[in-house]
Structures are given as structure tokens and as C-alpha cells.
Design brief:
Blueprint: H1 2-32, H2 40-55, H3 58-69, H4 74-81, H5 85-109
Helix pairs in contact: 1-3, 2-5, 3-5, 4-5
Length: 110
Amino acid sequence: IARNKAVDMVRREESRRRTKESLIQEADRTSREPLTDEPMAAVEERHEVRQALAQLSSVQREAIVLAYFGGRTYREVAVELSIPEGTAKTRLRDGITRLRELVISYRGSS
């Protein structure tokens, strides 16, 4: 039983790692793809958000990528990151607040 639990844990962690990597790659890929129909303001906004995401702490960025790019709920983010749901909510709230501040500062400096 202990061996099976250990194998399950290793598989679960590997799955989480792959999921995180694929979400981050997808977010990065889509943020770089130019869309010909997209207005220039939207392209600039995506660039600002991408820059701001890079400035966040890794725990905030990871939670935001899972929730907003991955479509996960608070509970799913918490399970994926092996943290309490309240901690996931806090990381998302703090990350979004910081993201907003950074994007506003980028716009103010342009």
C-alpha cells in the first residue's frame, strides 16, 4: 500500500509539473503571436501584461497562469499547487493587484 501511495504521489507531482510547464509555454506563445485583425492597442496591452507577469513573484505568477490562462478555480489552483485554498486566493488577489499596478505604471511612463 505504501509503495502504491508513493507511486501515486510521484505521478501526481509529475503531472502537475507538466501541466504548469505547458500552461506557461502556452501563455508565452500566445502573448507573442501577432494577430493581424487585432488593434494595435490590444497588442500593446498584451505586451504590457506579459512584461508585468515577468515582474511578479513566481508563486503569484504560477497561480495567475493556472487560474487565468488555465481556467482553474481557486480550489483547483490550491490542489495543483498543494496549498490551502485561502493561500491560493491570497496569491491570486495579491498577484492581480500587483499586475494592475505594473500595467498602470507602464502606461504612465509611455
